[in-house]
Amino acid sequence: MSSKLATYANLIVRYENQLKDTEKRTAEDGKKIVLMAENLSSQFRNVAEQVVSQIFTEIDQTYSSQIQQLSKKYFEEREKEIEKIKKQAQKNVNKAVDFVIAKLLEVYK
């Protein structure tokens, strides 16, 4: 019976050692999983920041391009209006000169 008792004691000790080893491996595996999760989270954050930065850059470029187009359009329309006003002013000057010449001719007749 003492040999059976020794065998049970050895089995219990071996079981406890295996249980401790399993707990230790579980803790180590948990730590590895947490570290991997932190690493993946960091990588995800970096990629997300790059994407957001790229989106803002594209938005800035789009608006900058639109602003430049609107400025160009405004400048062209402004130049057309100024040219139209200059032509009208020249016509008015020509009419005024013709009128003055006509009146001077009337006076000298």
Topology:
Elements lengths: L1 H107 L1
Fraction of helical residues: over 70%
* Class computed from helices, strands and strand pairing: mainly alpha
The span between the termini is 159 Å
Nearest-angstrom radius of gyration? 46 Å
- Principal-axes geometry comes out as rod-shaped
Instruction: Characterize the biggest β-sheet.
Output: none
The chain-level mean pLDDT equals: 90
Strand proportion: under 5%
Unreliable stretches covering 5 or more consecutive residues: none
Q: What is the chain-wise order of helices and strands?
A: H
Helix count equals: 1
Pfam family, one: DUF8181
InterPro entries: DUF8181 (IPR058494)
Your description of this structure?
InterPro entries: DUF8181 (IPR058494). This protein is mainly alpha-helical and 109 residues long. Helix content is 98%, strand content 0%. It is built from 1 helix and no strands. The mean pLDDT is 90.
Quick structural gist:
With about 110 residues, this protein is mainly alpha-helical.
Features:
109 residues; mainly alpha; 0% strand; rod-shaped; 1 helix
